Amino acid sequence: YEDYLFFIAYAIKRVDAERIKLDEIDMAVGKNFVLTYRHNHIEELEVVKNAFKSKINHFHKNASTLFYTIIDNMVDGYQVVIENFDLKIDEFGDQIFKDPSRSESIIALTSIKERLTKIRSIVVAEEAIFLNTSKGFYSILNEQENIFFKDIYDHLNKILDKIDRQGNTISNLLLAQMNLSTQKLNELINFLTIISAILLPANLIAGIYGMNFHKMPHLEDPSGFYITILIMFLVAI
Predict the structure, then answer these.
(1) Which residues does 60 contact at the CB level (< 8 Å), separation at least 6?
(2) In 50-133, where do the E strands start and end?
(3) Share of the chain above pLDDT 90, in %
């Protein structure tokens, strides 16, 4: 807008090992003010507000630097969440190689990938905005602070690269799990095929001698049963 910028960002909170929570924060930034609105408590925003009130951080000299500090704190929160996902991906990856049939690991990795997709959509949008900000696209922000917004853009770019690497890692783990499961299935089928090949001649002989004909070789022979069993055994060998 002519007199201010309206900006929507998201704080990312880690709920548990696989789940995250996205808290929206709306900001209007003018020449000498930063107005924020949110529905929920956002820790990163409270840290900046308390520092501003106590005048501990003299970096908050104007609206541009205050706006930068808020976003920088939120982006740092992204980094923490992404690094936690790294640990969980490694953990579930180890479980897959130990037991490919364990469905909990597959579900957890799929859930993490879904969360990463949500975060990625936010990071991509913010990355594009702060690229423009770092180039002085918005005249309301002080040109002297453009280098700070370039720093945010670089952080978002690195986070995006990490998210893409994590997504590729999860895809590779799921593919490896599928290959390991297929290999185990093939081994089972091979074993059952061997058993079937051994038992098939015996079934054939038993089927022939199970027919209700009155005249068959060795049918009345007292040792016919033992001869037939011996033949089955030899064929199996």
Answers:
(1) 48, 51, 52, 66, 69
(2) none
(3) 20
- Cα 71 from chain centroid? 25
Q: Which helix (H) or strand (E) holds 34?
A: strand 34-38
Return the CA Rg of the chain: 34
- Paired tokens of 42: 């956002």
> Rounded CA gap, 163 and 157, in Å?
10
Position 162, amino acid: K
Per-residue pLDDT tens over the stretch 30-65: 988 999 999 888 888 888 888 877 766 666 678 888
Determine the pLDDT at residue 49: 84
pTM of the model: 0.74
Q: Which of 1, 27, 24 lies closest to 12, judged by CA?
A: 24
The partner residues of 20 in beta bridges, in order of sequence, read 14
d(CA 139, CA 115): 35
- Going by C-alpha positions, the residue among 61, 63, 47 that lies closest to residue 3 is 63
Q: Which helix (H) or strand (E) holds 159?
A: helix 146-209
